[in-house]
């Protein structure tokens, strides 16, 4: 859904918590609030602060990624993962007012059986994160979970192609949990999780996500620019490597984790 903010009226109680009317409180300080309601939840956010966070994200994507790509520059993978980390941080700030009201928090995993289309730099970030994982037996379990379903992982996609909807639906219905879900049912790589896992945000009961019925997903206009920026980041490192894979498939076909 698109986010349409309704400006708070002057006689409404001010969202800052002062107990005063908005017209006698933050309005006088030039602070405007937006309100959006979905699935019975009221999300009130500071419009300027949110817009500023979105602008910071878009500026970074344009100045620090797209501009380099347009100039024909190349990036070392080290630098690229650093920039990806900054994109993730700026993205988290831009969605913070909405994320607070969404059940999509650390530990919530009912949606974790989709195809997770991932660029090489995102996958490298995950590889680095599991390389540092201190628990050897957890790593062995991860490898065996990846091996178990490897024949079901879809082949990579290139260029502007996406995994087609039928393939995505049948993969989802097969209900194979993401192998990065630990035996305790937690994401083992939460801090390094790829973009798709960060962009999926619902406001309905998380149990609905288990059956693909999660409602009122956060989908603002700028989301497509984030996908493009993250994709360009990989092209800055691997000019000729344009494919994207389902996250665990990188560990079958590109990274030496399987032994
Ligand atoms: S990487 Fe983590 S958040 Fe993403 S699908 Fe897998 S377990 Fe879920
Ligand atoms: Zn106020």
Protein model, in words:
The chain is mainly alpha-helical and 259 residues long. Among the domains are: 1-38, no CATH class; 104-217 and 239-253, no CATH class. The protein is 44% helix and 7% strand. The chain is built from nine helices and five strands. The strands form two sheets. It has a three-stranded antiparallel beta sheet. A two-stranded antiparallel ribbon has the order 4-5. Strand 2 (33-38) and strand 3 (41-46) form a beta hairpin. Helix 1 (47-70) packs antiparallel against helix 2 (77-99), helix 2 packs across helix 3 and helix 2 runs antiparallel to helix 8 (223-237). It is globular and about 60 Å long. The model has no long low-confidence stretch (mean pLDDT 88). The site of zinc ion has 5 residues, from loops. Iron/sulfur cluster binds at residues 109, 112, 116, 178, 180-181, 187, 189, 193, 197.
Notable features of this structure?
single chain, 259 residues, mainly alpha, three-stranded antiparallel sheet, two-stranded antiparallel sheet, 9 helices, 5 strands, binds iron/sulfur cluster, binds zinc ion
What is the structure about, briefly put?
By secondary structure, this protein is mainly α. Helices cover 44% and strands 7% of the residues.
Write the layout of secondary structure elements.
Elements: E1 6-7, E2 33-38, E3 41-46, H1 47-70, H2 77-99, E4 117-118, H3 120-131, H4 136-149, H5 165-174, H6 195-199, H7 207-210, H8 223-237, E5 245-246, H9 247-253
Helix pairs in contact: 1-2, 1-8, 2-3, 2-8
Bound molecules: iron/sulfur cluster and zinc ion (ZN).
